[in-house]
Design brief:
Helix content: 25-40%
Oligomer: single chain
Organism: Plakobranchus ocellatus
Radius of gyration: 19 Å
Number of domains: 2
Pfam family, one: DDE_Tnp_1_7
Domain PiggyBac transposable element-derived protein: 1-108
Protein name: PiggyBac transposable element-derived protein domain-containing protein
Strand content: under 5%
Distance between the termini: 29 Å
Number of strands: 0
Number of helices: 3
Structural class: mainly alpha
Largest sheet: none
Length: 108
């Protein structure tokens, strides 16, 4: 949630002196945020395809939102000359469920 990264969502509302965050409790009560997250649906769950099935989309629940953002980014941003970002240049230690192994990639 922004610049102040906590291990869990509940840690933003903790009163523990080490993990205490003054911003989140002032903005919203934890239960209100959890209610919003529970009931906010961007895609229809009836069209959900389970893991291992053909046509499974790992980001199916947010696909309409991602498609909308991509369309807006393409509409607004016009790249200039000499813009090139290679994924091998950006260090990343996280995990993606939909990551594809590329044997010819220089760094693995």
């Amino acid at each position: 949630m922004g610049l102040d990264k906590k291990p869990t969502l509940y840690d933003y509302w903790t009163r523990h002196p080490v993990l205490h965050s003054s911003f989140a409790p002032k903005v919203m009560v934890r239960e209100h945020l959890l209610s919003i997250l529970a009931f906010l649906h961007i895609n229809d769950n009836a069209t959900f395809v389970p893991h291992g099935q053909p046509d499974h989309d790992p980001i199916q629940k947010i696909r309409p939102f991602v498609d909308h953002l991509n369309a807006k980014f393409k509409e607004v941003y016009q790249p200039q000359r000499e813009v090139c970002i290679d994924e091998a240049m950006i260090p990343f230690k996280g995990r993606f469920r939909f990551k594809v192994y590329m044997k010819d990639k220089p760094t693995k």
